[in-house]
Design a protein that fits this description.
single chain, 321 residues, alpha+beta, Arc Repressor Mutant, subunit A, Endonuclease, Chain A, 3 domains, 8-stranded mixed beta sheet, two-stranded antiparallel sheet, elongated
Length: 321
Amino acid sequence: MLEPVGLDEGAERAYRLLLHRLGLSPQELADAHDLTAHQARQSLDRLVASGLATVTGRPARYTAIDPRHGLTALIRARQAELDAATTALESYAAEYHERVLRADPRRLVEVIEGPAAVADRLRDLVVGAEQEILAFDTPPYLTVPSSMAGMERDALARGVTVRAVYAAEVLRLPGRAEPVKELAALGEQARVVPRVPLKMVMADRRAAMIPLTSNEESVRTAAVLVRQSRLCDALVELFEAKWFQGAPVFAPAPTTDRPDLSPAEQALLSLLNSGFKDEAIARQLGVSERTLRRRTAELVERLGATSRFQAGAQAVRRGWV
């Protein structure tokens, strides 16, 4: 039972006996477990070295330390060693990966051709993600990628963090905003920016798939898979820069107490803060543009602002969005 913290079976048997004695000599341990005196002393000295026992007097007698202190300290020390080994693992893996890339640079970027092949590799990428998925989303679209939404739902369900940056144009297209809203409700962290530089899906910051061109006819028929490298690191930095610039969209309402703010006003504030045009906001809320302008004016007045921009700033300061 104590092998994971570095104690063999003999040391553990000695420790169990020691817990039931006020003091134990090597000869007493040898008699109890049919050991030589040398074997018994080795087991007891191993307990002392591990911080689980003390030794005093001549002839030597060994006494157990409270397991809540001794074993806890030993477990923490072993955990620290494992953490250090984990850190070293990343370093060794990076060295190995660099050597592989030098030997065969084609492993850095793989060109994937054909809609079926692209779809299969994208599925492998998303299904294989263990910690995080980063995504840029922007038109053009040839078909509605319903399978991608399903894969993302599965990733969210197994605890994978998903962050997506959408081009504003995406949420203005018919049928595109609602799936984004549904995914946000499931845990996707979504932000919107005026435009994104490319379409991309990245898993665990180690591999990213992007279309080979932005041409509408080839956007889903040819792609490149970029594996862990400085190029992949640069894509991460590009994503983080756009993420920082983006406005949250369809995010859960903050928990700050807002007794005078209705759910409809909360939704309106979120959409205004995301930079949507009136037409898109009205469509999302299911109201006419005339009604939207009236509600916006009322909200601006209630916030004591003189413009929509000031209203957004006031809402951010109050923690409403």
